[in-house]
Specification:
- The protein has 176 residues and is α+β, with helices and mostly antiparallel strands.
- Helices cover 66% and strands 8% of the residues.
- The chain has a 4-stranded antiparallel beta sheet, with helices on one face.
- The termini are far apart.
Length: 176
């Protein structure tokens, strides 16, 4: 599977799910207090901004088409596993929001509890996926490096760049 296509699929899935969830919360008529409605949106908004900014940085940095024959490929099982995590997160978020907004199944406090639990639990898992897709990879591509083992970037000049979260630490090969 092409990594670029997979990045867009994951990024757009999470971004659009959050936009739809915020929209559903904004138009929901079940809130008796406007502050509860705003509070519910504010539970979703931080996670939305974190992942949307990572994805949009990638999109802006890669506006030119990829050079012919320079396609990075992902292992199909790894891509399937990562997208399964993304899909379960997106579906659970939409389920929780739709169940509250349209099916009157939760009270406001229960809704906020389930919403917060979903965003917290899956936020960490999606963070791992997004770090791999938009952190290490984009740094390697920008620096002219090649991915050697998925964790260490081998720069074309021979320097080794090891990721620390989404920030790389360069280390010369001369054992300083």
């Amino acid at each position: 599977m092409q990594a670029r296509t997979f990045r867009y699929a994951c990024g757009l899935s999470v971004l659009m799910t959050h936009v739809v969830a915020i929209g559903c919360i904004a138009v929901a008529t079940r809130f008796t207090d406007f502050r509860d409605q705003i509070g519910s949106i504010l539970i979703v908004a931080p996670v939305t901004l974190i992942y949307a900014s990572s994805f949009l940085k990638y999109v802006v940095a890669n506006t030119a088409p990829a050079p012919a024959g320079a396609f990075e490929r992902l292992d199909v099982l790894a891509a399937l596993t990562m997208y399964l995590v993304v899909a379960i997160f997106c579906l659970s978020l939409l389920y929780i929001v739709a169940r509250f907004a349209f099916f009157s199944s939760y009270q406001v406090n229960e809704f906020k509890m389930w919403l917060g639990a979903s965003e917290t639990a899956f936020g960490a898992l999606i963070g791992v996926v997004f770090d791999r897709l938009f952190g290490v990879q984009s740094a390697a591509i920008k620096s002219g490096g090649e991915i050697s083992d998925g964790l260490t970037v081998q720069h074309t000049s021979g320097r080794s760049v090891e990721p620390l979260g989404s920030v790389g630490i360069e280390r010369a090969n001369d054992k300083r």
